[in-house]
Design goal:
By secondary structure, the chain is mainly β. It is built from 7 helices and 40 strands. A 5-stranded mixed beta sheet has the order 1-34-35-36-37, with no helix packed on it. A 4-stranded antiparallel beta sheet has the order 2-40-39-38, with no helix packed on it. Strand 32 and strand 33 form a beta hairpin. The longest helix has 19 residues. The relative contact order is 0.12.
C-alpha cells in the first residue's frame, strides 16, 4: 500500500511539474491539438507563432503593466548568428516557448533552442544550405518562423526543404524536398510551416523570379506527401488541371497567358489553422509578372492571386476563397498575417478572420463561409476608391500604368507588410505596423520577356524613399508626379503604429514613427494594457494599448523587425524578441539607425521587471570616403550613363556615405 501511495505521489508531482513548466518528466516540445486548443489555461506558454491557434499575438499575462512598464530591463541575451561568408542577414521570426525551452528560427532555416530562463543554448541546428543561395531570394535569406509539435520542431530551409527535428536534441529526423522544379533555381522558402491537424503544411517564395505558387502537406511522422494545392493554374497544353480548384481558376485566366512566367501566387507568409472549424487559412501572393497585359492579355481575375483560401487539412480541397485584389498588378500580396476572432457585428457574434494586406484595406471576413463583411482603408489608398458591397474593389483608372506612368498608393512595399499585427480582445483593437508610402510605376518600353533566374516583374517602380537613388532628371520627374497627384500625401514615407477598430472600421490612435524607411517592427499586445514593438532604429518601445501613450523605450543597439512575444517561468514574466536588421532591406538601412552605430548581427533578447541595462554591441569604426578621382577626356554622356548603371545597383550597394549603412559593399565609397 505504501509503495502505491509513493507511486501516486510521484505521478502527481510529475503532473504538477509539467503544468508549471518544469523539465522533470516533461517531453520536450510536448504540444498537441488538445493542448493548443486549451492554450488559455496556460497563459505563461507561447505555443505557436501567434501564441494560440487564433494567432492574435495577445498575451494574457499581467505582471508587466502600465504601472510598472518603465521598470522593464535586460534579462539575458543569446547570440543568434548564422553567417554564410560575409552575409549577415535579418531576423524575422517570433520565438516559441514550451515548458521552459525557447525555440526560434533564423536565416537560412537555422534553429536555436535555449533555456528560456537564462538564454543558455540547449542545441542549435544549422541547415546545409549553400551560402550563395541568398542570391536567388527576392528578400534575403530570412526565415519567418518554426512550429513545435509532439516532440518535434518543423522548419523550412532557404533551399526549399522541410525539416523535422527532435525537440530535445535538434537531431534531424527527416528532410523532404518541397520544390516541384529545382532546375528553375528560383524557388526558396522564407515562410513558416503550419501544423493543421495531422499534417504540416509549407509554401514557398520566388514569384518575382517567375515561379508557380503552391502549398504542400506532409505527414507529421514520416514526411510523406499527403496533398498539394496549386494557387495558380498551369498551361493546359501540359496536361489537365491537377485538382478541381484549378479548373475554376482557369476560367479567370487568358488561354494565351504567359505560362512560362509561372504566374506567381506564392505562399510565403503565416498560415492559420482553426481546430473548431477544421479549416486551414492560406494567404497567397502577387502575380508574376506584375502587369496583367503581359501575363493574361485578355484580363480576368486571375485566381488565386492575392487571395485568402480556406482548405480542408485532410484532403487539401478548398472550402471557400476571397480575392483581395482581382487582376493584381501592383505587387499587392495577401500573405500578411491573419487573425481569428469573435466580433459582435450588427448585433450578432461572428467568427471572423482579419487581415491588413499590402493593398491598404483592412478586411473582416466570416471565417466559416468566406462571406465579405467589411473593408476600409487604414492608410492612404488611391488604386481603388472603395470596396463595394460584394467585396470587390472599385478600381481607379488613374492607377493603371499600361500607357503612362502612374502614382499609386500604397507602394509595392504595402500599407502593411509581413511584420505581424496583433489583436487585443480587451481593447477590441488591432495594432498594425503600418506605412504610408507611394510609388511611381510604369510599363517598360521593351516587350516583356521571361528570364530564368532573374527578377521578372515586367514593370518599373520607384518607391518614394528610393528617389534619392535615381538619376536627377528621373528624380525630378517622379517628384513632380507625386506633387501633382490629386489628394496624394506626396513623396514622403511615413511609418506609424496604428490602433484600429475592426468593427467600426476606424482608426482609434496612431503613433508616428518618423519618415525614415522601414522602421516599424512586428507587434505584441498584452492583458497588462500594453503594446510592444521594436524598430529598425534599434529600440524596443512599450505603449499603452488603450491610448498609444509611450511608457518606456529600451535601446538595444540592433535593428528589430520581428514581433516580440511574452512568457512566464517561476512566476516571472518575460518579453523576448529576435533582433537583427536586413532581409530585403539589407542595402537600405534607415538613416541614423542602430545598424550604422553598432554591429548588426542576430541577437535573441529577453527582458523582465527590474532587469539590467541592455548591453550594446561594439561600436562601428567610421569609414573614410575617398576623394573622387580626376578623369581626363570624360565624354559629356558618360556621367549620365554611369548614373543609370549606378542607380540599378545602389538599392543594395548604396549606403549613402556616412548617413547610412549597407550589408553589401558600399559603392558610394
Amino acid at each position: 500500500m505504501r509503495a502505491r501511495v509513493g507511486l501516486l505521489a510521484l505521478l502527481l508531482l510529475a503532473g504538477c511539474a509539467q503544468r508549471e513548466g518544469s523539465e522533470v518528466g516533461v517531453r520536450a516540445g510536448n504540444i498537441d491539438l488538445e493542448r493548443l486548443s486549451n492554450a488559455h489555461a496556460e497563459p505563461g506558454q507561447w505555443l505557436t507563432l501567434g501564441r494560440t491557434w487564433k494567432a492574435d499575438r495577445y498575451s494574457p499575462l499581467t505582471q508587466i503593466d502600465v504601472e510598472n512598464a518603465g521598470r522593464l530591463g535586460f534579462a539575458w541575451e543569446y547570440a543568434a548568428r548564422t553567417r554564410r561568408g560575409r552575409v549577415e542577414v535579418g531576423h524575422e521570426a517570433t520565438p516559441i516557448v514550451v515548458d521552459g525551452i525557447m525555440y526560434a528560427s533564423g536565416p537560412w532555416g537555422a534553429v536555436y533552442a535555449v533555456d528560456a530562463r537564462t538564454g543558455e543554448e540547449r542545441w542549435r541546428y544549422d541547415p546545409d544550405v549553400d551560402g550563395s543561395y541568398w542570391r536567388r531570394a527576392c528578400c534575403g535569406a530570412v526565415n519567418r518562423g518554426l512550429q513545435v509539435w509532439k516532440g518535434r520542431v518543423y522548419v523550412g530551409t532557404l533551399d526549399g526543404h522541410l525539416v523535422s527535428l527532435d525537440a530535445a536534441t535538434g537531431k534531424e529526423l527527416w528532410k523532404v524536398d518541397t520544390l516541384i522544379d529545382r532546375d528553375k533555381r528560383s524557388y526558396t522558402i522564407t515562410g513558416p510551416a503550419q501544423i493543421a491537424k495531422n499534417v504540416v503544411v509549407i509554401g514557398n517564395s520566388g514569384a518575382e523570379f517567375g515561379v508557380r505558387g503552391y502549398v504542400t502537406a506532409y505527414d507529421l511522422e514520416t514526411g510523406e506527401q499527403r496533398w498539394r494545392f496549386f494557387t495558380v493554374p498551369r498551361n493546359p497544353a501540359e496536361g489537365p488541371p491537377e485538382h478541381p480548384e484549378m479548373e475554376l481558376a482557369l476560367q479567370t485566366w487568358d488561354p494565351d497567358s504567359h505560362w512560362e512566367s509561372g504566374l506567381g501566387g506564392t505562399v510565403w507568409g503565416e498560415m492559420v489553422y482553426d481546430p473548431e472549424l477544421d479549416l486551414l487559412y492560406v494567404g497567397t501572393g502577387n502575380s508574376s509578372p506584375y502587369p496583367i497585359w503581359h501575363r493574361s492579355p485578355r484580363g480576368g481575375d486571375n485566381l488565386f492571386l492575392a487571395s485568402i483560401l480556406a482548405l480542408d487539412p485532410d484532403t487539401g480541397r478548398m472550402a471557400w476563397y476571397y480575392q483581395t485584389t482581382p487582376g493584381e498588378i501592383w505587387d499587392y500580396t495577401a500573405t500578411q498575417n491573419m487573425i481569428l476572432a469573435e466580433l459582435d457585428i450588427d448585433g450578432r457574434t461572428r467568427k471572423v478572420i482579419m487581415q491588413a494586406p499590402k493593398n491598404g484595406f483592412f478586411y473582416v471576413l466570416d471565417r466559416e463561409t468566406g462571406e465579405f463583411l467589411s473593408a476600409e482603408p487604414f492608410v492612404y489608398v488611391n488604386w481603388a476608391s472603395r470596396i463595394d458591397e460584394n467585396g470587390r474593389p472599385v478600381i481607379n483608372p488613374e492607377a493603371i500604368y499600361k500607357d503612362r506612368p502612374a502614382v499609386v498608393f500604397p507602394s509595392g512595399a504595402g500599407g502593411h507588410n509581413w511584420q505581424p499585427m496583433a489583436f487585443n480582445p480587451d481593447t477590441g483593437l488591432v495594432y498594425i505596423p503600418a506605412r504610408q508610402q507611394g510609388m511611381v510605376v510604369s510599363n517598360p518600353p521593351a516587350p516583356y520577356e521571361w528570364q530564368p533566374g532573374r527578377s521578372n516583374t515586367g514593370s518599373s517602380a520607384v518607391f518614394s524613399f528610393l528617389l534619392e537613388l535615381v538619376p536627377p532628371q528621373q528624380r525630378a520627374a517622379a517628384e513632380a508626379m507625386f506633387a501633382g497627384a490629386q489628394g496624394s500625401p506626396g513623396a514622403k514615407t511615413e511609418e506609424m503604429l496604428i490602433a484600429y477598430d475592426p468593427v467600426a472600421q476606424q482608426e482609434r490612435w496612431r503613433v508616428p514613427l518618423g519618415s525614415s524607411d522601414f522602421t516599424a517592427g512586428g507587434v505584441l499586445t498584452t492583458a497588462g494594457n500594453l503594446v510592444i514593438q521594436g524598430t529598425g532604429t534599434g529600440y524596443l518601445n512599450v505603449y499603452r494599448a488603450d491610448t498609444g501613450e509611450r511608457l518606456h523605450s529600451i535601446e538595444v543597439g540592433t535593428g528589430i523587425m520581428a514581433a516580440p512575444m511574452s512568457y512566464e517561468i517561476d512566476g516571472e514574466q518575460y518579453i523576448a524578441v529576435l533582433a537583427g536588421f536586413g532581409g530585403a532591406l539589407a542595402g537600405i538601412y534607415p538613416k541614423g539607425t542602430a545598424p550604422y552605430r553598432y554591429q548588426n548581427y542576430g541577437r535573441l533578447l529577453a527582458f523582465k521587471l527590474d532587469g539590467a541595462a541592455t548591453p550594446l554591441p561594439p561600436a562601428r569604426e567610421p569609414q573614410r570616403t575617398p576623394e573622387p578621382p580626376h578623369i581626363e577626356a570624360l565624354a559629356k554622356a558618360d556621367p549620365d550613363r554611369g548614373a543609370l548603371h549606378f542607380s540599378r545597383c545602389a538599392s543594395c550597394h548604396g549606403a549613402r556615405g556616412e548617413e547610412r549603412l549597407s550589408a553589401y559593399p558600399d559603392l558610394f565609397r
